[in-house]
Write a structure and sequence with these properties.
Helices cover 58% and strands 0% of the residues. The radius of gyration is 19 Å and the shape is elongated. It is built from three helices and no strands. The protein is mainly alpha-helical and 114 residues long. Helix 1 packs antiparallel against helix 2. It has a single domain, classed as DksA, coiled-coil domain (Four Helix Bundle (Hemerythrin (Met), subunit A), Up-down Bundle), CATH 1.20.120. The chain binds zinc ion.
Length: 114
């Protein structure tokens, strides 16, 4: 890593903060709903359906966040390996602008899968 504007210690701290945020969000989204036992107790039918749809949306969001978490973990490994900033597919540069926007990028624009 020859670019002096990329400070590994700062990037590591940023990634670790992001990792904690993601873990907290995922935990929150996948937590069973409170008071679930009240469904069917004087509630309208629609409420249970809405809750089920909301849960499905939460699971979907949690899966997306888990994907980002994977990339954050991989980026931290890449910092250790000294390959941070290099695409995991072609070993080419990921690009500073891209890393600034998403410090957990592990692939270049060409090989990004999302
Ligand atoms: Zn690539």
């Amino acid at each position: 890593m020859s670019d002096p504007s990329l400070d590994p210690a700062q990037i590591r701290a940023e990634l670790q903060t992001k990792r904690e945020e993601l873990r907290a969000q995922i935990t929150d989204l996948t937590r069973p709903p409170e008071g679930g036992a009240t469904i069917g107790f004087g509630k309208r039918i629609g409420e249970g359906t809405t809750q089920a749809i909301q849960q499905m949306a939460d699971v979907s969001t949690a899966q997306t966040l888990a994907g980002v978490l994977d990339q954050v973990e991989r980026s931290l490994t890449k910092l250790d390996e000294g390959s941070y900033g290099q695409c995991d597919v072609c070993q080419g540069p990921i690009g500073e602008a891209r890393l600034e926007f998403r410090p957990w990028s592990v692939r270049c624009v060409e090989h990004a899968d999302g």
